Structures are given as C-alpha cells and as structure tokens.
Amino acid sequence: MRPDLSLGAVRVWQRNRDVFLRLWRSESWPPFVEAFVTLLAFGFGLGSYVTLGSEEYIFFLAPGLIAQAVFFGATFETTFGSFFRMDSQKTFDAIRATPLSVDDIALGEILWGATRGVISAAALLAAEWAFGLLPSSWALALLPAGFLGGMVFAAIGLAFTAVAPSVNAFNYFFSLYFTPSLFFGAVYFPLERLPTWVQLLAQLLPMTHLATLARALNRGDLSPTLLVHCSYLLAAAVLLSLLAMALLRRRLIL
C-alpha cells in the first residue's frame, strides 16, 4: 500500500517539539548525564588501563558514545514515548480526528525520535569538545549522520510499539534488540577481536554502522567505505519507516 503522507507529518513533529520545549528541564538532561558519566568512567577511568594500538581508548570511545546518545534518544522516544501517546494519552486518536493520516503520525514520530537523538548527541558533542576529544572538524558531521541513524532507530522503536500489546512487552525489545545493539555495535570495543560469526551478525545492527561512521568522522578519516555505511543507514531508514507506517496503520485502523 502506498504511504498516505503529507506535510502533516511536520505538524506531528512540531507538536512533539512544543511539548518538549515546555518540559525540557526534566526531559533533556538524563541521556546527557548518562553518556557523560559513561565517558568519565569508561573513557578516563577504565581507559587509563586500555590501549588500542597507537590510539588512546578515550578517543576510540568518545564518538561511539555520541552514536549511543542518538540510539538512546531516538529509541526511548518512539518506544515508551510513542506508546504512551498512543495508548494512555490517546494523542494519536486526537490527531486522527484531523485531516492527518496515520502515516503522517508515524513519520512525524520517527522524525521527532531522530531529532531527540540529535539533541542528546549535540549535548555530548559539546562536552567532548570541551575535553579536547574532537581531533577533526569533521566531527560536526556527526550531527547529520546522527539524524540519519536516529531515523533508523526511531523507526525500529515505533515498529515494535505498533505491535506491543502492553508496556511490559518492551522487556523483550530491550533484552533481545537494545542490549545486543549496545554491546555488540562497535561502541565500546573493536569488533575485530570477536569471533567471525559475531562480527557478521554485528554488521546487521544499525548501531555498528553509525558507530563506525561516527568514529571515522571524528578522526577525519574519510574513505569510500563511509558511503557503504551511509547507504546502509539510508536504506534501513526508508524500509523500516515504511514498515513502521504499515504496522501502526494496522494497529490504529484495521
């Protein structure tokens, strides 16, 4: 079925943005603090005992944490956030009373999830700049790259939300997808030291491609292989967004 999309998706994004601006004091700091504490504990703490060839561990970890911040922001927004807007607050039902379509709602939620990921990434990017952990000006490209990755993470989260019978179902999502993505997505250590079959499975995770892309941009190490990671994320964003639209359409209409 062809998606029924319009500029109404932007209105959904604006609605979520306006709510965030009213609640930003309590909404914006938790993911930033969590990533910042991780940077201090693993980067400067554990990192003082770890070496990765000629590169200090803190410089390996820092861009991975930016990818992680995108992951956290986008995922939590389109799982718990979208579920409560859909189920408890009945926000989606109210929007459906307007000319907007279900596909507009889905795309608006995905766009907002990606935006939340970039907001978290931008805060951490500023902190890492203050610590001198951004050796290349190409690190600024982490924000648009983060938005693309955030679209993927947000679409995955919304797709699961659309089929979750209750909020308790997210236990499966976080155990079977979120945690493996976090620990096997090239954030905390190089994948080359893992068994070959694990490396192959890790390449299926969007986090692996975003973390690898973030690390290359942070180093200013531009190569044609970055196009592979960008192409993967772009294709995944489109396909998974279409999947999320179809599942949310089935949840709300059929």
Strand content bin: under 5%
| N-to-C order of helices and strands | HHEEHHHHHHHH
Structural class: mainly alpha
Strand order of the largest sheet: 1-2
Gyration radius from CA atoms, angstroms: 18 Å
Unreliable sequence segments: none
Please give the alpha-carbon distance between the first and last residues.
Answer: 14 Å
- For the residues shown, what is the average pLDDT? 90
Largest sheet: 2 strands, antiparallel
What does this structure look like?
By secondary structure, the chain is mostly helical. Helices cover 74% and strands 2% of the residues. The chain has ten helices and two strands. The protein has helices at 8-27, 29-45, 57-88, 91-96, 102-130, 142-163, 170-183, 196-202, 206-219, 225-252; strands spanning 51-52, 55-56. Strand 1 and strand 2 form a beta hairpin. The longest helix is centred in the N-terminal third of the chain and has 32 residues, at 57-88. The protein is globular. 44% of the residues are buried. The mean pLDDT is 90.
Descriptive terms for the model:
single chain; two-stranded antiparallel sheet; 10 helices
Brief overview, please?
This protein has helices at 8-27, 29-45, 57-88, 91-96, 102-130, 142-163, 170-183, 196-202, 206-219, 225-252, and strands spanning 51-52, 55-56.
Write the layout of secondary structure elements.
Elements: H1 8-27, H2 29-45, E1 51-52, E2 55-56, H3 57-88, H4 91-96, H5 102-130, H6 142-163, H7 170-183, H8 196-202, H9 206-219, H10 225-252
Antiparallel strand pairs: 1-2
